[in-house]
């Protein structure tokens, strides 16, 4: 029982990273109809920016704030410079662009910072808490708290502020929002900024444990996509729950399903996702259809 509890706890904490990245995917999708496969690589850029700032002598927390702000700016530049010129209903072009951005950003990161693994300092210290025989590290606790704060902030932003309500209005019906005086292009770029800032948090939480490499977020991106499909891309709450479930499922699969150790534990999670999609294509919490701007 102690072993099971430890595995579930570890999976839940890993799932928080997937949940944050899945939330970023959902924000972009709901605003533009595009699944941004480059979201993970944008998170990698944020982690490298934070690392470079730390190497320049900036304390770790201010460096992380700079990285999150820089990631938001990258989102605005990406939308205004590239995405806005593609019609939202051209899903084939948007998917091609998404893959191109993933490969392009990955190559740019490798050229700028190299491919050798780098150590990212743990902003939460190195202490360990024991609950009986269950072990929890400071990085796990701190990472969970940081992601939870981000998710709560996003919930309040989209439900309790005029800024969030305007984002939702443009995402649901850009033409009607324009008639009310809102500029859809401006607000969609703001949505990209928010999504990239959330994705940056996922990258900063993952970096201390996974190590800093250009491909560090490729597997988390796959997990986030699985989480988004499991929970439903049309539901921000759903993708968060999906991320937590994926984290737990991969942890359980790696321990208790024969032959699924190491990276193969993702197979168990994806089998569950496929079953859910076959039964409920929109995901556990998603709507049957999404109105795209």
Overall number of strands: 2
- Overall pLDDT: 87
Give the ordered list of helices and strands: HHHHEEHHHHHHH
Helix content: over 70%
Instruction: List the uncertain runs.
Output: none
Name the structural class.
Answer: mainly alpha
- Main pleated-sheet profile: 2 strands, antiparallel
Sequence of strands across the biggest β-sheet: 1-2
The span between the termini is: 49 Å
Number of helices: 11
- Strand composition percent: under 5%
Q: Could you tell me the radius of gyration in angstroms?
A: 19 Å
Q: How many domains in all?
A: 1
Overall geometry: globular
Structure description:
- This protein has one domain (2-216).
- The radius of gyration is 19 Å and the shape is globular.
- 71% of the residues lie in helices and 3% in strands.
- The protein is built from 11 helices and 2 strands.
- Helix 3 crosses helix 8 and helix 9 packs across helix 10.
Gist of the model:
The protein has one domain (2-216). The chain is built from eleven helices and two strands. The protein has helices spanning 2-32, 39-55, 60-81, 91-113, 138-160, 162-172, 174-179, 184-210, 218-231, 236-256, 266-279, and strands at residues 128-131, 134-137.
List the main descriptive attributes of the protein structure presented here.
2 strands, two-stranded antiparallel ribbon, mainly alpha
């Amino acid at each position: 029982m102690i072993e099971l509890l430890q595995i579930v706890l570890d999976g839940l904490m890993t799932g928080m990273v997937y949940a944050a990245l899945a939330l970023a995917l959902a924000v972009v999708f709901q605003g533009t109809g595009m699944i941004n496969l480059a979201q993970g690589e944008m998170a990698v850029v944020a982690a490298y920016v934070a690392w470079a700032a730390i190497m320049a002598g900036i304390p770790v927390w201010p460096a992380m704030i700079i990285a999150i702000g820089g990631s938001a700016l990258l989102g605005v530049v990406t939308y205004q410079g590239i995405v806005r010129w593609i019609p939202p209903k051209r899903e084939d072009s948007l998917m091609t662009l998404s893959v191109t951005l993933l490969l392009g950003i990955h190559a740019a990161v490798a050229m700028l910072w190299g491919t050798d693994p780098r150590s990212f300092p743990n902003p939460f210290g190195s202490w360990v808490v024991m609950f009986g025989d269950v072990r929890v590290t400071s990085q796990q606790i701190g990472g969970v708290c940081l992601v939870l704060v981000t998710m709560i902030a996003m919930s309040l932003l989209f439900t309790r502020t005029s800024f969030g309500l305007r984002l939702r209005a443009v995402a649901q019906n850009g033409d009607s929002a324009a008639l009310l005086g809102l500029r859809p292009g401006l607000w969609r770029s703001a949505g990209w900024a928010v999504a990239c800032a959330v994705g940056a948090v996922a990258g900063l939480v993952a970096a201390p444990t996974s190590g800093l490499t250009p491909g560090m977020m490729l597997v988390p991106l796959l997990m986030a996509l699985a989480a988004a499909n499991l929970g439903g891309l049309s539901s921000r709450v759903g993708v968060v729950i999906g991320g937590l479930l994926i984290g737990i499922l991969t942890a359980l699969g790696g321990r208790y399903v024969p032959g699924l150790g190491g990276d193969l534990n993702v197979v168990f999670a994806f089998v569950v996702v496929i079953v859910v999609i076959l039964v409920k294509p929109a995901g556990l919490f998603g709507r049957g259809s999404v109105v795209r701007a």
